[in-house]
Amino acid sequence: MKRTLENIENQFETFQILNEEGEIVNEDAVPELSDDDLKEIMRRMVYTRILDQRSIALNRQGRLGFYAPTAGQEASQLGSQYALEQADYILPGYRDVPQLIWQGLPLYKAFLFSKGHYVGNQMPDGLNAVSPQIIIGAQITQAAGVGIGFKKRGEEAVAITYTGDGGASQGDFYEGVNFAGALGGQNIFVVQNNQFAISVPVEKQSAAQTIAQKAVAAGIEGIQVDGMDVLAVYAVTKDARERAINGEGPTLIETLTYRYGPHTMAGDDPTRYRTEDMNDEWEKKDPIVRFRKYLESKDLWNEDEENKVIEKAKEEIKAAIKEADNTPKQKVTDLMDIMYEELPQSLKEQREEYAEKESK
Amino acid sequence: MAQMTMIQAITEAMRTELGNDENVLVFGEDVGHNGGVFRATEGLQDEFGEERVFDTPLAESGINGMAIGLALTGFRPVPEIQFFGFVFETMDAISGQMARYRFRTGGTKSMPITIRSPFGGGVHTPELHADSLEGLMAQQPGLKVVIPSNPYDAKGLLIQSIRDNDPVIFLEHMKLYRSFREEVPEEEYTVELGKANVKREGSDVTLVAYGAMVHSALKAAEQLEEDGVSAEVIDLRTVSPVDYETILESVKKTNRAVMIQEAQKQAGIASSVAAEIQEKAILHLEAPVMRVTAPDTVYPFTQAEGVWLPDHTSIIEKVESVMNF
């Protein structure tokens, strides 16, 4: 009897281009990116880190609602997003607001989403995306549908969806990757393995050594990548996108990453399940520190550049939160109006009742 | 005009809309080459090709999640859930996701999906094949729940459901699939959603039913006529949203009402309609609004279903107690 598990697991290595010192360790794999591209990626990561710090502060002041911190995951989120084209479709999880922003969601709308205002869920023209999913993994089967739809229409576009290590345990994860494989979806499934599903460590999610190897059972490509290395994440996503569009099937990408903050701002205390040592170890891998070293070695980045980005981010965040605050409050009648295309007979009467309450 | 069974009328409706709109897709378990376990999709793959009528992997959540994604790319999906008892596998995709999409996207994205599914008792199926679970669906805002009682309505309602821009749960009572034929126009026509149908006019009591129970109500009405009781029979056709106007108009005329459903008594369509009548027309009533339902147990597949399921005799008994109140 031939045993195969060990052979399969041994084939999943972590793909890396930049090491922790910001040195190229995989020369052949360095993606073709102009100096402007490299600076733009850095700019986005720095901006997003500031946005995270400001969002946490705004949440603590009671000026934002639901917020899932992003610091630590910038390379996973923005490296993959940078590989997309505007025609592509994003189906994010609840932590994946930065990808939406850099694909075209105005900042004030991201804040409105956080505050639970439906205007935050209205994507602007030209942004193919749905708002972040709250149910873990529910977006994965939907992403398969979008990818299969693109294939049916012969469109040069992919559907990319994001979940976490916990999400890869859901039935919808397995169903989604399997449907995309079986029906030829133009899909990229990104699992940001940030080591913990709230408090449960990834070792308790599965006996599988990697999440990437779950692709094997679905008959699709799987790759594990250093999720703190923005060049590596960009390169594997770009490659996955090209293969999907060329009819070579979907790809599952596992990014190894870490969230520095709590699960969400709703009372999670990471000191209950993570040690300082562990935090320190991951902070040494920081995606921004590493990429800064790389860019500095190429004379593409300096403190001045960075400060300019930080100031710009702070200004724009201030303006956006003001705009969000100035958006008219959402009413119950607004919700009634968007339950159906046309208000049913039975809801009309209830609408009148609430319209009267709201007029007082 | 042709004589058709309800299942033929359902196939006809899908054929019509596949022909009318290239965005319509029909898919599910065994719906392709095999034409569905009840043959509802017989011949459709041959006629419209595998890109538009296709088999999926066996996973209900995946089927409806995929339907959502296809709707996001402009398609008009008509997925089949092979038996409605399997809906528990896909409750999130339906109630947690597609029903909320219009709301969740701030009114910018619609989900023109019609989930077809066989349901209903009396045909000796294994467990979780016969349950009446329309109440679960009716509780979810954002969905429409349609249940035809005859071939003519089935065709017109299904065409209208497929054209509707909100998600529709289209439930087909298995006992009605081939139990009788009637005249069904070959040309296309629609039956409005959310509109009940007065199947029989009467002056003493209003019987409100849907699906297979419409036929039990009509049978009861015939027998009651012989005893001098004139029963009006209303076929809801859409159980969410309910056409309360038609019901209230009837009750104000007859002053008595009996709600009939094959589902268990607790928390169903019959209860909410009864409550609405009492809120809106209490002074018109000569007797309490009564309900004829199955008991509050799980569905007793095969063995005891004959006793468990309500029928025309249980309707007649309830009408008598309303008349003699």
Automatic annotation (TrEMBL), chain A:
Domain of life: Bacteria
Start and end residues of each Dehydrogenase E1 component domain: 42-332
Pfam families: E1_dh
UniProt keyword Coiled coil, yes or no: yes
SUPFAM superfamilies: Thiamin diphosphate-binding fold (THDP-binding) (SSF52518)
Cofactor field: thiamine diphosphate
BP terms from Gene Ontology: branched-chain amino acid catabolic process
Keywords noted in UniProt: Coiled coil, Oxidoreductase, Pyruvate, Thiamine pyrophosphate
GO molecular function, one term: pyruvate dehydrogenase (acetyl-transferring) activity
Record's function text: The pyruvate dehydrogenase complex catalyzes the overall conversion of pyruvate to acetyl-CoA and CO(2). It contains multiple copies of three enzymatic components: pyruvate dehydrogenase (E1), dihydrolipoamide acetyltransferase (E2) and lipoamide dehydrogenase (E3).
Self-association state and partner proteins as the record states: Heterodimer of an alpha and a beta chain.
Entry protein name: Pyruvate dehydrogenase E1 component subunit alpha
From TrEMBL, chain B:
Keyword Cytoplasm: no
Coiled-coil boundaries: none
Domain Transketolase-like pyrimidine-binding: 4-179
InterPro entries (alphabetical): THDP-binding, Transketo_C/PFOR_II, Transketolase-like_Pyr-bd, Transketolase_C
GO molecular function: oxidoreductase activity
Keywords, alphabetical: Oxidoreductase, Pyruvate, Thiamine pyrophosphate
Keyword Thylakoid: no
Domain of life of the source: Bacteria
Obligatory cofactor(s): thiamine diphosphate
The name this protein goes by in its record: Pyruvate dehydrogenase E1 component beta subunit
Organism of derivation: Salimicrobium flavidum
Lineage: Bacteria, Bacillati, Bacillota, Bacilli, Bacillales
